[in-house]
Design brief:
There is one protein chain. The protein is an alpha+beta fold. It has two domains: 91 residues, Pseudouridine synthase, CATH 3.30.2350.10; 132 residues, Pseudouridine synthase (2-Layer Sandwich). The protein contains seven helices and 15 strands. The strands form three sheets. Strands 1, 2, 3, 4, 7, 10, 11, 12, 13, 14 and 15 form an eleven-stranded mixed sheet that branches. Strands 5-6 form a two-stranded antiparallel ribbon. A hairpin with an 8-residue loop joins β5 and β6. The chain is globular, with a radius of gyration of 19 Å.
Length: 241
């Protein structure tokens, strides 16, 4: 799908960013708002700091359709490492357990991945932005607290094992909104009895939008204008229906 240039001076619509590892989604929103002096800027679905790939930035009137954007299914590719468990379930966290994973076979990993296809209830990680009694879980986690949180219904359409280079597992997953991919890795590690954590994650698709349509953040920031990179609302809304 080709991107359609904006025909208006008003920067209203969607900006497809290929997020680098490091900054938070909020950091990118703030940088674009500041660089281009756009009063209203948001995003259509958070990526963790270590994750890369498609981040949909909402500009102007585009911020009004955030729920519509976030409601779409998502596709990721990534890597998780067996034998090491962290408190955040990814490589940004503190190592809390290590076990020998040399006995785990590719068949065992594939079986665990296949078992997670379809509907399932997923327990959100403590290191997350979900709020309990108005407080984000990650703030409680920083204090060493663990609280009860309700599991969420998610759906995996596919969960493919792309490569197995022990102790690393490369995968692709297509899932519904709200799925914590690092928790999928963590849960597989627990089921195999060796622990696991996510080491790489790249979002390649959100609904009808693909990361191949996105531009790297630095490239966008270096431009004098975003006008010809914006997907106008008139073009985006039919795709998001």
């Amino acid at each position: 799908m080709a991107l359609l240039p904006s025909t208006s001076d008003a920067l209203d619509g969607l900006l497809l960013v290929d997020k680098p590892a490091g900054p938070t989604s909020h950091d990118i929103v703030a940088r674009i708002r500041r660089q281009f002096r756009i009063p209203k800027v948001g995003h259509g679905g958070t990526l963790d700091p270590m994750a890369t790939g498609l981040l949909i930035i909402l500009l102007g009137k585009g911020t009004k359709i955030s729920e519509r954007v976030m409601g779409h299914d998502k596709t990721y590719v990534g890597v998780f490492r067996l034998g090491v468990e962290t408190d955040s379930q990814d490589a940004d966290g503190r190592v809390v357990a290590e076990k020998d994973a040399s006995g785990v076979t590719v068949a065992q990993v594939a079986e665990q991945m296949h078992a997670r296809l379809g509907d399932q209830m997923q327990m959100p990680p403590m290191v997350s932005a979900i709020k309990v009694q108005g407080v984000p879980l990650y703030k409680l986690a920083r204090k060493g607290q663990t609280v009860e949180r309700p599991p969420k219904l998610i759906h995996l359409y596919r969960f493919d094992l792309l490569a197995f280079s022990p102790p690393d597992v490369r995968f692709a997953v297509e899932c519904t909104k709200g799925t914590y991919v690092r928790t999928l890795a963590h849960d597989i590690g627990q089921a195999l009895g060796v622990g696991a954590h996510l080491t790489e994650l790249r979002r390649t698709r959100i609904g009808p939008f693909d990361v191949a349509q996105a531009a790297p953040l630095d490239e966008l920031i270096a431009r004098p204008s975003l006008a010809d990179r914006i997907v106008p609302l008139a073009a985006a809304l039919p795709l998001l229906a």
